[in-house]
Every structure is written in C-alpha cells, then in structure tokens.
Amino acid sequence: MWIKFNPNPCGRNVEDCTIRALCAALDISWDEGHDLLAESSKNMCDMQHSSAALGAVLRRHGFYRHVIPNDAPDDYTVREFAYDHPRGIYVLSTGSGSHVTAMIDGNVYDSWDSLNEIPVYYWSKEQDYARV
After folding, report:
1. Which domains does the chain have, with CATH numbers?
2. pLDDT tens, per residue, the chain with 132 residues
3. What one-character-per-residue DSSP string does 79-104 give?
4. Residue 2 and which of 37, 45, 81, 112 are 20 to 30 A apart at CA?
5. pTM to 2 decimal places
6. CA distances to 3, 38, 63, 93, 106 from 121, in Å
C-alpha cells in the first residue's frame, strides 16, 4: 500500500526523494535527513542525491545493499516487491537510480504513488528480510 509521506517542513514537492526515503526508513526529521546526506556527500565530494552518499548513510545505520535478482521479471514493480517483502525496512532505488523510496512492513512511504516504478536495487535494515 502507498502511504502519502512528505516530511518537507515547508510542505514543498521538490527533488528530495533521497531525503524523504531516509526520513521514513530512519524515522527522523527532514532536517536530520538533509544534514546526514549533506555531511556524507560533502565528505565524498559528491551530490546529496547520489547513490554513493545515500549508501554511506544507510550503511552507517545498519542497512545492507542488494540487487534485484536476474530471475525477477523485467517488469517487477515496487508493488510486487512490497507484496514479496511484507516485513522489514527497505529503501528502494528505481530505474536508472533517479528515484528512491522507502518501504516499511509492505507500505511504501512517498510523496507520490511510486508503486508502479521498477526497483533496480534496495537496501534492507536486516539481512534476514532480504528475499525476492
């Protein structure tokens, strides 16, 4: 299920999906998510929305990265991923990595309905939950 989630303190819809996903997955404020990514990206000489900066933050918070298996259908969606992963905390990167969303216990937390997006890789809070 999609749950509308926009922790932006001004209620704006801006290109902050990476921050939103961190906020949901780590249960932190938008300001805290922004600061974590800013510090990570600054240390890496990269942009806040980069996969590397996000990955560094998630790793420090106990997440593990996984790739969607090759035997998954080419049109395997976030909705299907949620169905296959009813428990746990996940951060999913879709398409060419242009969108990131969070999923908690089968519910997708995003400012828009991203259930039909195609995940490429994901981060899980606990390795035991990682299965497709």
Report:
1. 2-129 (3.90.70)
2. 999 999 999 999 898 999 999 999 999 999 999 999 999 988 888 887 888 899 999 999 999 999 999 999 999 999 999 999 999 999 999 985 689 999 999 999 999 999 999 999 999 986 554 444
3. HHHHHH--SSEEEEEETTTTEEEEEE
4. 37
5. 0.90
6. 21, 22, 13, 6, 16
